[in-house]
Formate dehydrogenase-O alpha subunit
Amino acid sequence: MQVSRRQFFKICAGGMAGTTAAALGFAPATALAETRQYKLLRTRETRNTCTYCSVGCGLLMYSLGDGAKNAKASIFHIEGDPDHPVNRGALCPKGAGLVDFIHSESRLNSRNIARQAPINGSKSVGTKRSIASPS
């Protein structure tokens, strides 16, 4: 099928008119996105500093939990702090991936002291003892 230049412009104009009509509200109601509740509405915001490098970018960490002693907070969102003078809300890829690092299964949860042996022979100790005796 041979399409002339004039026919091509008519087809494009018809497509743009249809798209504009759909955007003005003539589209079916099921196709429109429903409003959802804001995910950070009932969260606790904590300001912190990224420890990946020596720059010290500011972070905003959002967690579920009311901050009670017996409640364990679960961090689910991290973003750059727009009020921080160093990064002004921007994060590098390492800082943006902190949530995955926090919830990683291979993350160390306690300190280890090696006793002249490889990792298999290391002994897990508490935080107070590892600070008191560095050897």
About this structure: DSSP finds four helices and five strands in the chain. The longest strand covers residues 58-64. Residues 109-135 form one domain.
